[in-house]
TrEMBL record:
Keywords: Membrane, Transmembrane, Transmembrane helix. The chain crosses the membrane at residues 21-40, 46-69, 90-109, 121-144, 156-174, 194-215, 227-249, 269-295, 307-325, 331-353, 392-410. GO terms for molecular function: cytosine transmembrane transporter activity. The lineage of its organism: Bacteria, Bacillati, Bacillota, Clostridia, Thermosediminibacterales. It comes from Thermosediminibacter litoriperuensis. It holds the Pfam family Transp_cyt_pur. This is Cytosine permease. It is a multi-pass membrane protein. It comes from the Bacteria. One of its GO terms (cellular component) is plasma membrane. InterPro entries: CodB, Pur-cyt_permease.
Length: 424
């Protein structure tokens, strides 16, 4: 797939919706998807938590569909797709920044989980207590090292880790219903009291990046219909299933720390091994993607990719040692505020102003489109600080409206300034 890089995918290399849906489903099957459900149910009764999570995934699917269909139309990745809305340099900066921040943050979360799981393995196996921070440091180093030197060699682990995590989820569900019973589960009382807006925002944050960069995969779709179907079928059912598993694991264990939850269910050693494998494979990709994002952000030579991958993983490892897992909900809130407004600006540009027309999209690409950048910032602030409504929707709507209001005045100002400069 990498042979086309930033160029359009030829029609003879396009794929059916179910091929792309499998890729999306594989991306959803990870430890963080379980943790999102656990984070939500800490502040809501079970059924409300599941409903809030499902609504969050529905919001993702809506803006992901528009992003995906545009990717299918143009056949290029997100950093190119977004160049009309933000300008070439603006798109490079914004997309690379969100990818770097999100992947490094997720590296910290996953390394923290791996450290907790490894400490549990050593305790059960050898009776030795290793501090979680030390295990997190060890596994962070292993993960970033394999990302730098052994990325291809680790690919086979995905064939083990993904099915194993599905089996662990099903095994956990069976243990929950056999050991705890429906009565105890239904009578669950959350420790906190989350609003619907906050809970839905946590769900959106869990896969907001995936929704915005949908073009990276949907560029291979045959048409708009396939792009839409692949996102819905691949993301929504898988995400909601793992959300429910995460909710129930947290209810019976009292924590969204997945390692503790697995241990309390009596899945200790095997469960911990599966968690280490799952986080290892995910974090290899996180470090690799984070390194590429840094290279693109600062326009570095590709030869520096191993060094930037190492730096991305090193920063994530420091976060793990500092106990970044404790700030998981704050991290999701930040992603919910910062990422969906990007889609709002892009939707306004391509689907409203350009009417979904590829030729109009191509004709007005500049180095910097200030309408897109300003509208994204306004959407981010709205999502972060407005106290009414759902934060992700607030951000998308404000960024869309701002883009539509700012586009023509700023375009006219730029044209006038350029004309005056030429006359001088």
């Amino acid at each position: 797939m990498e042979q086309h890089a930033l160029n359009p995918i030829p029609k003879n290399e396009r794929r059916s919706w179910y091929n792309i849906a499998l890729i999306w489903a594989g991306a959803m099957i990870c430890v963080s998807s379980l943790m999102v459900g656990g984070a939500i149910v800490q502040g809501m009764p079970i059924l409300k938590a599941i409903a809030a999570g499902a609504i969050g995934y529905t919001i993702i699917i809506v803006f992901m569909t528009f992003q995906g269909m545009q990717g299918s139309d143009l056949g290029v990745p997100t950093v190119v797709v977004s160049s009309s809305a933000f300008g070439r340099e603006g798109a490079r900066f914004i997309i690379s920044t969100i990818l770097a921040v999100s992947t490094i943050g997720w590296f910290g979360v996953q390394a923290n989980v791996a450290g907790s799981a490894f400490s549990q393995i050593i305790n059960l196996w050898l009776g030795i207590n290793i501090p979680v921070w030390l295990s997190g440091l060890l596994w962070g180093i292993i993960m970033l090292t394999t990302a730098v030197y052994g990325f291809r060699a680790l690919e086979f682990l995905n064939y083990i880790a993904i099915p194993s995590l599905i089996i662990l989820s099903l095994w956990g569900l069976a243990k929950i219903f056999s050991s705890y019973g429906m009565t105890n589960i239904i009578n669950y009382v959350p420790k906190e009291n989350y609003s619907w807006s906050y809970a839905i925002g946590l769900s959106v944050g869990g896969f907001a990046v995936g929704g915005v960069i949908a073009a990276d995969f949907s560029r291979y779709a045959n048409n708009r219909k396939d792009a839409m179907l692949s996102g819905f079928v691949g993301v929504w059912p898988t995400g909601v299933f793992l959300l429910i598993v995460g909710v129930l694991l947290t209810v019976v264990s009292g924590t969204y720390d997945i390692t503790i939850a697995v241990t309390k269910l009596g899945l200790g050693f095997i469960g911990a091994v599966i968690l280490v494998l799952a986080t290892w494979t995910t974090n290899t990709v996180n470090a690799y993607s984070g390194g590429l994002a840094i290279i693109n952000l600062f326009k570095m030579k590709n030869e520096l990719r191993p060094l930037m991958t190492f730096i991305a993983g090193a920063v994530g490892t420091v976060l793990a040692v500092m106990g970044f897992l404790n700030y998981f909900t704050s991290f999701l809130t930040l992603l919910t505020a910062g990422i969906p407004p990007i889609a709002g600006s892009m939707i306004a540009d391509y689907w409203i102003l350009k009417k979904g027309n590829k030729k109009l999209w191509e004709s007005e690409i500049t180095d910097i489109n200030w309408a897109g950048i300003i509208s994204w910032i306004l959407g981010f602030l709205a999502a972060m600080f407005l106290k009414t409504g759902i934060s992700a929707i607030n951000g998308i709507i404000i960024s869309m409206i701002s883009y539509l209001v700012l586009y023509y005045p700023l375009k006219a100002y730029k044209t006038k300034t350029a004309t005056n400069f030429k006359e001088v």
